[in-house]
Amino acid sequence: MEWIVLGSGNHKPNGERGSSGHVLRGEGPPVLIDCGAGSFHALDLAGVEPWSIETIWITHLHPDHVADLVPLLFRLRVETKACGPKTLAMYGPRGLERHLRMLYDLHAPHIAVPELTVTVHELDESRLARAIECGGCDVRPVRMDHGTMVAFGYRFTNAAGRAAAYTGDTGPSDAILELAAGADLLVIEATARERGTLPQHLTATEAGEFAAKAGVGGVILVHLEPDRDEKELLEEAGRAFGGRLFAGRDGLVVSVVPTQDSTKE
Ligand SMILES: [Zn+2]
Ligand SMILES: [Zn+2]
After folding, report:
1. 2-262: CATH number
2. Which of 52, 68, 160, 164 could make an S-S bridge to 185, C-beta 3.0–4.6 Å?
């Protein structure tokens, strides 16, 4: 199983960092996680065929996590002409269904056609208690602390027991520990420059501290300010965390390997 960073940036995408988007590729069909500006283009750069995606997990409805849903749906709709009907399952917070309905109102018939069936699963408390099977993984959503936004982190565990956790956007919260405990890979946001300046986000230092506390094997820092220096980010997170550590870059691919192996490197 491997984690592909489509977009390592935040709401200020530039030539190097697109907004939030990720793919988890393993035994089953690739899974798309968030779909911010640039994600659709980055799928092609990462060699992920859009048609092969059967499931999308949305952490929350801030535009830097959902802006590329329209071009993706448009392309899939066009491809149904050649490839036949397609079903796509989309998971996310309450409001996702309304969000899509409004997109359909704007863009139908270009993205809403009978041949493309999108099933929307809004996550509620009953769904948080149990894992959801998807793409060869069990997926566990955990409610994160992102101010007034309803936001989820997701933990993906494959049949071999390898686990990758993704925080989406979050401020400092014990929910991060619940999400990431013992995971082989933690993809964690590190937007804020200084502790306390953006309470709905984390600094790289805080990301490293949570990763160390959660006992994860590897870390990718994402949702980064476009001008942040990678060396500085790694230094900050590396003060507390001693495992495999990556500053997210668009196109970065990281294997989800057993925690014990990753810490030996
Ligand atoms: Zn956000
Ligand atoms: Zn964001």
Report:
1. 3.60.15.10
2. 164
